[in-house]
Amino acid sequence: MSMRLNVPLDARLKHAVVVVALAFGAMSTKNAYAYVCPPVEAPPIIGSIFTVQAAFRVLFNTLFDQMKQALMGVGRIEVSAIKVMTSQVATAAKAQINANVVLKQGEMAAIGYLETAKLQLKVYQDYSPEFGQGHNPCEQSKVQTDMAMANGQSGAGAVEMVTLLAAAPGRYGSPEGFVNRMFAQRSAKYLSIDEQKLGFGTANAQTVTLVNGLKFPLAGADTNASVLFADATDSRIKDAKQAYLDHVAGAPDVPIAPDVAALPMGKNYLALKGRKDAVMSVAMNSLATIGSENTPNAETGKSKMQAMRDLVDLYYGAGGKAKERWAGWASQSQRGLMVDQLKIDASLLAVKTEQYQQTQRMEAVLGSLLALEAQREYKPALNTSVESINSMRTAPAVR
Q1: Are 135 and 332 in contact (CB under 8 A)?
Q2: Please, what is the end-to-end C-alpha distance for the chain in angstroms?
Q3: Buried-most residue among 44, 172, 244, 272 (CB within 10 A)?
Q4: pLDDT for 2 beyond 50
Q5: Element (H, E) at 215
Q6: Single pTM value for the model
Q7: Which of 129, 176, 30 is nearest to 328 (CA)?
Q8: Is 37 helix (H, G, I), strand (E, B) or coil?
């Protein structure tokens, strides 16, 4: 009986090394920098490690079982075949030595790949959303970007709404034309049931679905302050907001000729208009800001208030994104929890900044009201005092 190995040892070992190299080579191509969205995925890496471990177990078991069976067969070789057997044993010994060399090389290569994988897993543990980066950093980044963009858009939108007013600061026009235009607009878009009963036309029975799912009626929307808080992409809501501001601001001021403006009465008219415009602009800016902050912008499709609600919903509430985050925090590393805490603090800071801006607008309105009250309270007395002084100047001297 001649002794032969059923499976070439060097070919099997080389195949195993190739398997190891391919498995960990695939792992090395994974993006280990999870701060780039989307973050690195752990299952393929862990799965590759298990594949390599299984390949080595199969390799060792199969290889040495066959070696053992082949060498045990030496005792049953006929004497006449000793010379052949000796030659084959030498060949087998050489093959075993070569196999051991290849095996050690494979082990060293595998160890190198394993060390690389360990480093990658360490990076994953430190920076992944599931463990160390803070839960779902991509979602957090998107919401912050939406809010920053919506913030700039809402400011520009408020300025535009004020400049479009018929009674915008510094604007003159025809009061009668304004009244006719506003009534025609109401009849066409916002006529109420009561106005229909009076015979002014057909009431608008249409509604617009807001982002929160509620239905907003268009009838009477141009004189309903709640339209400023209505958040919808429908252009009819945006038009109703502009119409509401026009109703509040009222008709434009009648223009006067330059020669009339040069007279004392003309100067008094311009002074009164300037004062009216200055005070009115405070109220109109505040109202326009509310309307604009609840109007989706073209770039993100979300209003400033919706973007802020999305930011709050990431951390607050019983469902949705907040529920995912609370569940994710249970598996977060200490570093990940600290990162999320910083994100929460940043969100609170953004909300507080908005509160400060709203407080400033409120102070401006209160300041304007106080100025009007001071004008009403002291202006008559000042006028009387001026008249007394003027009468003393023009009185004949007492001899």
Answers
A1: yes
A2: 161
A3: 244
A4: no
A5: strand 215-217
A6: 0.64
A7: 129
A8: coil
